[in-house]
Amino acid sequence: MPTVLLTRPQEEIPKDTQIFKRFGFEVVSLPLIGFEEVEFAPPRLEEFDYLYFGSKRGVRFFLKKVKEIPPSVRVIAVGEKTAEELRKRGVEPFKVLKGSSKDLVEMAKDGKLQRGKILAITPKEYIKSIHLVEEWGFGLKVLPVYRTVFIRYPLSVVESAVIKSDIIIFTSPSTFMSFLENLQNRKELLDTKIIVAIGKTTAGAIEVRGFKVSFIPSRPNTEVLAKELMEELDGSKGKDIKG
């Protein structure tokens, strides 16, 4: 059985482990990032036309302090997990975007979103391209409500996890950056590993640093990833997926 190394936050690893095992993988885990709340003053939501959430964590941290969203404010969510987190709290999204803030920019550019003022709920380390909506006549205020924290391990722990694994799964640019910091000067350990990215943004962050991404699923979803990755491995027997 191929062995995958999971690097996402600890809270998500038990569920992901079950999914990968169901599709025939062995699993090694090394949670590489965590999250901390950033202090912020609750905004006057009545001043905005749209409330944008880029992640489910943004929903959790924001609605921990802001208890009610006015009905006049239209909520935009990135991804089904973010939308699900909103629905758990009684908020039905106006739009659910598939990928990232780039989709919001495209909607603004193509005239698929009525002009207005957007409050974007983000991590402290957010993708700056969201500011491009301002070029298309939208007002924008970015409100960071949490920060990503890298988890540190002794080098021996990281080496052991990598050596046991055939495939390393990265679910965000942050998981990869934390991985590189933990790996220190042992980057040659990746030479024989299959590197998998959950989506194009993560793949770009990996490849710009000189590493090859061998697989990206058709959708940024763990179940889709596990299923399609096993199908790819089964179909490439006798060949090298890294090639």
Write the layout of secondary structure elements.
Blueprint lengths: L2 E4 L6 H10 L3 E4 L3 E5 L12 E4 L2 H10 L8 E5 L1 H9 L6 E3 L3 H9 L7 E7 L15 E12 L4 H10 L2 E4 L2 H11 L10 E4 L2 H8 L14 H14 L8
Parallel strand pairs: 1-2, 1-9, 4-5, 4-7, 5-6, 7-8, 9-10
Antiparallel strand pairs: 3-8
Helix pairs in contact: 2-3, 6-7
Annotation, overall tally of beta strands: 10
Number of separate structural domains: 2
The parts where pLDDT drops under 50 for at least 5 residues are none
CA gyration radius, whole angstroms: 19 Å
Averaged pLDDT: 93
Shape: elongated
Beta-strand percentage?
15-25%
CATH class of the largest domain: Alpha Beta
Largest sheet: 6 strands, mixed
Class of secondary structure makeup? alpha/beta
Question: What is the subunit arrangement here?
Answer: single chain
CATH topology of the largest domain: Rossmann fold
Count of individual helical segments: 8
**Helix content bin:** 25-40%
CATH architecture of the largest domain: 3-Layer(aba) Sandwich
Query: Which sequence of SSEs, written as H and E, runs from N to C?
Result: EHEEEHEHEHEEHEHEHH
Spatial order of the strands in the main sheet? 3-8-7-4-5-6
Question: Termini distance?
Answer: 20 Å
